[in-house]
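[worker-b] picked up task from shared queue
[worker-b] task type: protein-ligand structure
[worker-b] ligand name resolved to molybdenum atom; SMILES cross-checked against name lookup, match
[worker-b] sequence length check passed
[worker-b] input payload:
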Amino acid sequence: MVTRGFSSGRKPPTDADARIPPGQYLEQGFPVLSAGPTPRVRTEDWSFTLKQGPRPIKTWNWTEFNALPLTKMTRDIHCVTAWTKFDTAWQGVLVDDILADAGIEPPTAFVLALSFDGYTTNVPTQDLTAGKAMVALLYEGKPITPDHGGPARLLVPHLYFWKSAKWLNGLQFTERDEPGFWELRGYHIYGDPWREQRYTGDP
Ligand SMILES: Nc1nc2c(c(=O)[nH]1)N[C@H]1C(S)=C(S)[C@@H](COP(=O)(O)O)O[C@H]1N2
Ligand SMILES: [Mo]
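[worker-b] inference finished, payload out:
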């Protein structure tokens, strides 16, 4: 007997459905979303700085940063424009390993990610540590292409993808949760896709 309700065009729920947050659809491609033109950052000119407020804690050049431990992360990602992509495969340096190399414990509870294009986005420190986030250097085994944020981008896969800053050049510890580029323009301060925190005022 055919189960009523699943028979006429409606598909039964699958494991895949359970991986798609509310209001999202499954995307097979990899859309590019940038607020401005793609900055071309040569690895010779690349650097990454850990800061506390305006004060630099430590800076790595490309060679130094690539000497840090490389970790693999394969995760589903969720863009606020409603696409979800399964099993994106990244390699990069865990934020934990960056902090360890700098010899510090997180000095404040919030971070502002800083990018070469002037883009910023805020994330609570605890959403970046304990293996939850990385500075990604490779996508599907190859250097990240410029349009997707190469040479290096932040990857915070459990939050909407606008939190994964492309063309990353630093992480700044801040005393308060300071809204970044999109958070100042109406996006949610935290951005949990499972709670559908898209815009300011969403729960
Ligand atoms: N530096 C920077 N990072 C950024 C953006 C940007 O404009 N500049 N766009 C954000 C947004 S809104 C999204 S959805 C993702 C898109 O990443 P993708 O182009 O690799 O899909 O990058 C995020 N990171
Ligand atoms: Mo986005």
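[worker-b] attaching auto-annotations
[worker-b] The chain has one domain: 46-195.
[worker-b] releasing lock
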